[in-house]
Amino acid sequence: MQIVGEIAKNPGVYKITCIETGKFYVGGTTDCRRRRYEHLYALRKSKHRSIRFQNAFNKYGESSFVFEVLEFCDRDSFRVREQYWIDTLRPFDRNVGFNVTAQAFPTTLGRIPTSETLDKIRATWSRKQDKCAHFRKAIVRSDGQRFVSIREAARQVGCSDVNLRDALKKNRPFQGLFYRYADEVQ
To answer: Is 147 helix (H, G, I), strand (E, B) or coil?
Structure first.
């Protein structure tokens, strides 16, 4: 992705243009340099939230895009300035640009979450922790060696913790030895 002008670690509004089609994406951020890398990362992984932008990137390639800062502004006003540029340039029009909506992306910047929102966040994290609980359980190898976790055992054995976990779950030997959760061993 080519760069036009200066890209600083400052708040601002930016535009990413496809040279081949002239279509563009407009966004606002608290750190223009970091945001450029975030877009590139998502596009390279084919995970950008704008499917039209992603499709153009896949079709024309990274070298067909130019990143430019439209204006630097205060951290407190970049969303207002982003909305101004979206209203002016109309990148949400399919014939003009890649933006998904006509509004500057809603942000939680500076907002204090409600207790209901915090409860939802906690519930989500709790479910994620439950899914990964087996990685934190102590395990015992059939030769009697104990490990604090699957991850520690995998590092010492020199393998992936996922491979070791699969052998443990399927009750099959791994590298000639059986592994069990410590709380299951009598």
So the answer is: strand
